[in-house]
Write a structure and sequence with these properties.
Layout lengths: L3 E3 L2 E3 L1 H42 L3 H16 L2 H11 L9 H26 L3 H9 L4 H31 L11 H12 L2 H36 L1
Antiparallel strand pairs: 1-2
Keywords: Amino-acid transport, Cell membrane, Membrane, Transmembrane, Transmembrane helix, Transport
Pfam families: BPD_transp_1 (PF00528)
Family: Belongs to the binding-protein-dependent transport system permease family.
Length: about 230
């Protein structure tokens, strides 16, 4: 198939067709798993930081504040570089994928912690009092009454965090993780067709995020119906 010429732009269709699958494969094998694993660990870390921020122990509150401040005040790219390139100076070496998971998880933990904390605080104080009248302690009220209600409030912002995380995985290419964008870079290194291949990478990211947005909307609708019934 001959290249298609559009003004000053020439589209190499054979290259476009042959490169699309490797780029998509990089997304399916590395980008999505990397985002899911990092989000799970990051969510657990965010829950811990949120509970520490709500703790009555000043030291715990202070530690959580410092952690969140550092994560939110430094670029993710720098965090990746410190973990992958800096930790070996201390004798700690990690693989590119593990390094990316650690950095992304810590980043999610710092940002999602405030989302979870705000969701917990949005539950009326009367819900705590209702739990106490039933003979529950603080932990039981939190797990059985507060967190289920806070979960509904936190779903939209946390879903947006996950979608942003999918795009942020592109930074893992800087530490040689062969995810979606890294695959596009590798093909570009031999073809030099930057516009075509990076546009394909952008298209695949958009497809992933569009599908995730649809799933997010479906989950929110299901939760709305559940809340309406109860």
């Amino acid at each position: 198939m001959a290249p298609f010429v559009l003004g000053e732009i020439t589209i190499d269709w054979p290259l476009a067709f042959h490169s699309f699958w490797p780029i998509l494969q990089g997304g399916l094998i590395y980008t999505i798993p990397l985002a899911i694993i990092s989000f799970i660990f990051g969510l657990a870390l965010a829950m811990l930081m949120a509970l520490l921020r709500l703790s009555k122990v000043n030291v715990a509150q202070g530690a959580a504040r410092v952690y969140i401040s550092i994560i939110r005040g430094t670029p993710l790219l720098v965090q990746l570089a410190i973990i992958f390139y800096g930790l070996p100076d201390l004798g700690i070496e990690v693989s590119p994928f593990v390094g990316a998971v650690v950095a992304l998880s810590m980043n999610v933990g710092g940002y999602a912690a405030e989302t979870i904390r705000a969701s917990i605080l949005s539950v009326p104080q009367g819900q705590w009092e209702a739990g106490y009248t039933l003979g529950m302690n603080d932990a039981q009220v939190m797990c059985r009454i507060i967190l289920p209600q806070a979960a509904r409030v936190s779903v939209p912002p946390l879903s947006n965090t996950f979608i942003s995380l999918v795009k942020d995985t592109s930074l893992a290419s800087t530490i040689t993780v062969t995810e979606l964008f890294r695959r596009a870079q590798e093909i570009t290194a031999t073809s030099y067709d930057f516009l075509l291949l990076y546009s394909e990478a952008a298209l695949v990211y958009w497809i992933f995020c569009f599908i995730l947005s649809m799933i997010q909307g479906h989950i929110e609708n299901r939760l709305d119906r559940y809340v309406a019934r109860h």
